[in-house]
Design goal:
Two copies of one chain form a homodimer.
Chain A: H1 13-45, H2 48-68, H3 80-90, H4 95-123, H5 130-149, H6 153-179, H7 183-207, H8 213-245, H9 257-262, H10 265-275, H11 290-312, H12 316-321, H13 324-354, H14 361-380, H15 389-422
Organism (chains A, B): Carya illinoinensis (Pecan)
Family (chains A, B): Belongs to the aromatic acid exporter (TC 2.A.85) family.
Keywords (chains A, B): Ion channel, Ion transport, Membrane, Transmembrane, Transmembrane helix, Transport
Chain lengths: ~450, ~450
């Protein structure tokens, strides 16, 4: 705070207080402006966030209105609070997450309500102090068992919220049943309020600018492939330009794109789990093979690690230390591997985005394989006997990594083909390519 | 299902049905046994899971009993349901998560309740249809704004749950206020029920076998360092044994340990966020520098990527293709780098676990630096002029990666020292080392 550091020594107490207040106001205004700017940036980065906030507002207002006109539909009883609860808790950013939470909540409420009513019937067989003891023991057993089940990875991935709501509803209904005897009615009211309000949340989420997590995942996988493709194409040019001209292009954004690929694993799995709930999406439909996307994603990540190796060798002084004749010799196949593998990856990216098969990708892979063989045989002969080993190694190591990248790209192509056949991507074979410039 | 595939063609319908039922029973029994085994394994992997489940059971039973004896403390009113809700929602696996959720819930309820009561006073200025419209507009504005604030990374990390509860409580109190006029009393009741029940959850969580997320994070960081240390020590032996004997040791578990390090990033950040809530832990106390642990963790991960490079070169046929004299020459400094860096990392791991400074680590780093310099000068002279480049490169590349690992280890040591001074780790200088065998 620079408020305290201002020099007010030779003025009266009133002026001093006034100056201090002015400084404070300026400070507060600056903080408010900074906060507003951050808020603006957050909205500009992804405008869907603003839309989401408005959607939540609309859903909550709808439910509130529902409650205000309760006099008209007087069936909601005291459960208006549950309505608000359900909308706030169920409404998530993506359709998949909202559907998952909504369905989990409905199913868990239904099954736990039914179980609690059954338990209540058993407990009425006991009288006086016996009843709370039986109810307490049952609540303990069921909550402990279901809590433990939440640790199962398969259940945690898709039904974690449902299991929590199961414990909640069971305890709620069975605890209340001891006090008032209208258990059945209460369970029934709770169930239909939750169903109606989950549907309000789901419908607002789907109808007003929906964010489909499946689409987001598909785009992300495609964008990751594109980033790797851009890196490879750019790397080939950059490396041998550096070696000749000693300086490089200004725009190096392509060199950093791959880094975001490395940290996506957890998020991709979460997204695939949520995408499975989006059964009604017009492009994907039932049983879309989300697992195959994950496989493409994992192989993409393995390839990105190799690009990280490559990038380590992009140091100007090391490259220029390499003997020129050696560099010139391997330049052609190296650039060819980079550009062909890069084209293959970018072709896959556009094919995934358009959900069609690719006809040109096999050609790129074949060309890059030929270049890799050529490079391999060049590195194996001992033309450079008089060269300093330390000088040759960095460039030769780049060659070795590039040779490694070819089978890596091929694996991605194979897993893409599996995805394309499972997901019934459109075939392109029978169309006449518009690029046939004769 | 192999039930259908059994051959029942030449028997009567009764026998067939009987056989089918028997097969089904066997199948069901096998599934039940498999499920029980999975459950058992889950418990054996981490017995704290079983303890956690029992703790949740105890907390819920306690709250239920509280509600059963409501006749004695008849101040809970109709809010018994909130009690159960709070315990189920607040109770998490670790102390940090439970404290975070509990404090978030209490603070959010308090502030949102106060705001809602204020808004309610404003709304009473309007009559008839004006009141629900004003309430609706305010609910819309507040829920949309707070939902948008949940996208702020800084708020999302620690206060996401609180912001959700804020919307919830605000809407709940303001919606209910339109129907019954006891808003103040309702807000007050809700607040103290939530406070009491959050405390029940927090106390059970802390007093019965607590799982401190801070301890877990500390152990994880230390274990990751130890895994890298084991890998390095093992790699040095393994690589040159492979080259001489052509086969390797049976126990290769040390070679795979580092892999888990690569995928820990997201979890470490979440853990550090939760650990900040554990203000009362006797070992860490207030303002423990959790960020410093994250930095050590990030550098550990960078080092693990280099180990992945190393592992790629551990292919028998490639190593044996290297000319023997070259391999023999660089063997000594390579093994020295591996063993000294490995020792340094393992020393750091044990220092972090015991929360003390290390006196020996600088020695290991100095020795590994000397070895790296020796290796560097060996690779730079051109002794191996007649060697086949393709044959030499893999082993020389291993040398280059090892030279890279030394500054990487040094960075980890520097960040450990920063951590040690910030967290006031115990000094070891003034003690007489028991290992001084003269």
């Amino acid at each position: 705070m620079d408020i305290a550091s201002a020099n007010f020594e030779n003025v009266g107490p009133f002026t001093r207080a006034w100056e201090w207040l002015k400084a404070l106001a300026v400070k507060l205004w600056a903080m408010a402006v900074e906060f507003a700017n951050k808020m603006k940036k957050l909205g500009q980065d992804d405008p869907r966030r603003i839309v989401h906030s408005l959607k939540v507002g609309v859903a909550i207002t709808l439910v509130s209105l529902f409650y205000y006109v309760r006099q008209l539909f007087d069936r909601f009883g005291e459960d208006g609070i549950w309505a608000v609860l359900t909308v706030v808790l169920v409404f998530e950013f993506s359709v998949g997450a909202t559907l998952g939470k909504g369905l989990n909540r409905m199913l868990a409420t239904l099954s736990a309500g039914a179980l609690a009513v059954g338990v209540d019937q058993v407990a009425t067989l006991f009288d006086g102090t016996g009843q709370p003891i039986v109810l307490g023991i049952l609540a303990f057993i069921i909550s402990a068992t279901v809590t433990f089940m939440r640790f199962f990875p398969a259940l945690k991935a898709r039904y974690d919220y449902g299991l929590m709501i199961f414990i909640l509803t069971f305890c709620l209904v069975s605890v209340s049943s001891y006090q008032d005897d209208e258990v059945l009615e209460m369970a029934y009211e709770r169930l239909y309020t939750i169903i109606i309000c989950s549907f309000i949340a789901i419908i607002v989420c789907i109808c007003v600018c929906p964010v489909w997590i499946g689409e987001t995942l598909q785009n992300q996988i495609a964008n990751n492939l594109e980033k790797l493709g851009n890196f490879l194409e750019g790397f080939g040019r950059e490396y041998f330009r550096l070696s000749e001209e000693g300086h490089s292009t200004d725009d190096k954004s392509f060199l950093h794109g791959y880094k975001s690929v490395l940290s996506f694993e957890d998020k991709e799995e979460t997204m695939a789990n949520l995408a499975r709930w989006e059964l009604w999406h017009y492009r994907f439909g039932f049983r879309h093979p989300w697992n195959r996307y994950l496989k493409v994603g994992t192989l993409t990540r393995q390839c990105a690690y190799k690009l990280e190796d490559l990038k380590r060798y992009l140091k100007c002084f090391e490259i220029q230390a390499t003997p020129t004749e050696f560099r010139k010799e391997i330049q052609v196949p190296c650039i060819q591997i980079c550009s062909e593998s890069g084209k293959a990856l970018k072709e896959l990216a556009s094919a995934i985005k358009k959900m069609r098969r690719s006809t040109t990708v096999d050609g790129h892979i074949a060309k890059s394989k030929i270049a890799a063989e050529k490079l391999n045989s060049m590195l194996s002969n001992s033309l450079w006997e008089n060269a300093n080993l330390r000088e040759i190694i960095p460039t030769a190591a780049v060659g070795l990594v590039l040779i490694d990248i070819v089978p890596c790209t091929e694996k991605i192509v194979v897993s893409f083909k599996e995805l394309a056949s499972r997901a019934r991507f459109e075939r392109m074979d029978d169309r006449v390519s518009p690029n046939n410039d004769v």
